[in-house]
Amino acid sequence: MPPSLLEGIQKAFKEGTVVKTKKGKNGALFLESCDGKILAVIKLKQNELGSAVSPLASERTNGSEEPIALASKPGIEPGEGAFSEYLTAFVMSEWLEKTDIESDQILIPSVVWGEIAHAEIDGPHCLIAQEGCLHAFAPQSTSFNKDIESLYASNLTEAIQMLAIMDMALINADRNSENFLLQKNQKNTTCIIPIDHACILPRNGIAPMFPCWKNLPQIKQPLTKKSRQFILEHLTENTLKTQLLKINTSEAQNFDPDRIKAHKIAIELLKAGVQNDLTLRDILGLFMQLDHFETPAIHQILQTNTDINTISQLCKRLVATYKTQVQSSRERNPNLPDNDLYQEALERALSYHL
After folding, report:
1. Which of 15, 22, 42, 231 gives the lowest tally of CB atoms within 10 Å of its CB?
2. Per-residue pLDDT tens digits for 11-61
3. Three-class SS of residue 131?
4. Domains of the chain: which residue ranges?
5. What is the pTM of this model?
6. What is the SS3 string spanning 289-347?
7. Are 121 and 21 in contact (CB under 8 A)?
8. DSSP-assigned beta bridge partners for residue 44
């Protein structure tokens, strides 16, 4: 969404064309036109868990106000989600420009960052500017779990692998079926629309089980030539750092170095995985927070305070051992469930190197 569209929405507010702001889930807001069309989605910093909340982010229960806050994850501070949403859209868009994936197979909704003030948002008694992220709405789309058959199409292999790679590199701790949308493009084929990037780069390096990715057949297949090339040649933390330098906000200037370090570790694990000919499903075993094993590799490496300049070599050694242990576990027990297999392999690899 270009700034001109943001200006158009602000003008519509003043003229009364936008007549309603509708509550979404977890504190998100939908801007609706007078004919009921959703124009955009707003996420405000102050609606996040632990932040000061506006009247819009609360509802009365038995005479008291209970905040409806944006979802929060361990390792992510209150107020960071809205900016993460904005930053991620730029980073993912720049990464996609380095690939040859068809533009109608992946759509990253455009975003702007700014201050939004309107009586229906702030309440009749506090018409003040609120910082937040405004992003384009994806119309006529369905969630991942309602049209999963579309994802099995062979022509989507590279698109699915690329999105999984980006999620892993950003340690997206909230990729689920509700924020992974599908839409038919002009060719009547499936376009994938990832949304809701508020929970990226947790400081503890812990992400859940990536339920949207781990069971897709394209993730279990060997990486395509383009996917391998992207990881080895184009995937670096410099994309994130460059975007932070371009964004003139206090959030960018004060972006936590620990989150950048977690990003660096994630990227080095991906590169080492490719160099060891692992599938993305195998590599996910290094990232996932399993039900009964809460120490994925990124978290463990962060705990050691390893110097950022030596992370690459440590990741190479760790992944090489992990690959050997995965193969060994498969040979010993071919029927071992994936989660148990990866947990066993990772525990042994971590014990050797950390």
Report:
1. 15
2. 666 665 654 566 766 677 887 777 777 778 888 887 775 554 444 444 433
3. strand
4. 3-353
5. 0.87
6. CECCECCCHHHHHHHCCCCHHHHHHHHHHHHHHHHHHHHHHHHHCCCCCHHHHHHHHHH
7. yes
8. 132
